[in-house]
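Entry, Tuesday afternoon. Goal for today is a structural model of the target with flavin mononucleotide bound, before we commit to ordering more compound. Inputs were pasted exactly as handed over by J.K., no edits. I checked the ligand SMILES twice against the vendor sheet because last time a stereocentre got dropped in transcription.
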Amino acid sequence: MRCFYAKAWIAASARRGAALALATGAARPWRGLRGVAKLLTLARTRTVTGCAQSGAAGEGQLSDRGGIFAGADPMAIVQRWLDEAELTEPNDPNAIALATVDAAGMPNVRMVLLKEIRPEGFVFYTNYESAKAGEIEGAGRAAFVLHWKSLRRQVRVRGAMRRVEGAEADAYFASRSLKSRLGAWASRQSQPLGARAELIAEVARQTARHGTNPPRPPFWGGYCLEPVEIEFWADGAFRLHDRFRWRRSGPGAAWEICRLSP
Ligand SMILES: Cc1cc2nc3c(=O)[nH]c(=O)nc-3n(C[C@H](O)[C@H](O)[C@H](O)COP(=O)(O)O)c2cc1C
């Protein structure tokens, strides 16, 4: 399958070239037209060599997607890179910068910890009454970036958001330390707080209330980001980095892979 976006960009450039050819045509029209012909040739070659559908037949066109970029499943590649980062990063290799957008279109970003990579998406946990949750619920979509300084690699992900609640969220909550569980009860995440002492007093209240076995708060749980786009980036000499973007129309659809200019 061809890379629609590269094709659209090049076609637009060709249109601009044609307009230029017409505009400057009075002097030497063939020059502008030669440029248009060049762009159209570029469009033909780029769309064939730059992108390919994931899987047997089309993938041969991306013959230089090997080494750390190899694999038929992008989720498995992210997992493999994360496994490597766990051996090299000083701390929190699973920290992601999660980007959301509010109702006015104002972007927002903060770190959260990626807790699971499943076939359908990337899972993290948070407070459902927090600013991020409001923005996630409002837009239904989010993006994140993973960056490992030690590996000089980056993974960018965009997609739709779905809650992870019920037994799955209960099980994850139960796996956390007692203090973290009580802290989740005590914190009204993203709300103004008068003083730290108020938070400590609230932890004491929640400890008296729940003892040593606090259930998962109803306002706390997970989100799964179901990707429609995943980009793998690795540092290259002299800024000639490698980038491969996987894109699909929705969950379950075939992936299209493009090598991108750095
Ligand atoms: C390394 C790191 C990991 C974090 N992990 C989480 C997390 O998993 N869940 C969470 O709710 N907040 C986490 N935080 C705190 C968030 O960055 C943020 O302060 C908080 O979620 C409130 O964000 P909001 O007001 O945009 O909702 C983490 C912060 C850092 C620096």
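The beta strands are 51-53, 95-101, 107-113, 116-118, 121-127, 141-148, 153-164, 220-234, 242-247, 256-259.
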